[in-house]
Specification:
The chain is of the alpha+beta class. It has nine helices and five strands, in the order βββαββαααααααα.
Length: about 200
Amino acid sequence: MIGRLHGKLLEKQPPWLVIEVMGVGYELEAPMSTFYKLPDTGGELRLYTHLSVREDAHLLYGFFTENERTFFRTLLKVNGVGAKLALGILSGIEQNDFAQCVNEGNTARLVRLPGVGKKTAERLIVEMKDRLAEWDTGGVSTDDLGVPRSTRSVAVTSPQDDAISALVALGYKPQEASKWVKNIAEEGMSSEELIRKALQAAM
């Protein structure tokens, strides 16, 4: 089990990054809350990690704080919640707000998250109520993205295109994603900034 990495940041293109550790490059998928805190390429960093082993792949997820990783792992324990959905939940709502929704039984807000229907929202509320004690909300923002590997593009694209692609991969409709990004886009904004503001507009 890989629990933590300490090395040099080689690449970063939301939601993917590559860390070099002792000459080995580890590719990870990370939440946007982690991306906001990353150093420039070539800088040193430490990340908490979660390794997901599947028949067809070994996937590594990186988190800037142990709190975020614990929240992610707690969501995975909910029946029917996989890594993509867990990251989608993390990206669309902060931990404190999620806990409040669970405590108040607020399904209306949860169903606005991509991939969360009424039944899933109800299941999250029922199963997470007993698990809230497993993680400390701590007021940490959790703007994570769950963009599948197949959507990663090696072509050079604009920050707006990157942001729209990330939102679509997260589960939002292309028309919605394009509208949100264009409405908040300003010259010089990075894809991370565009994604953050678009996610805020979505909620």
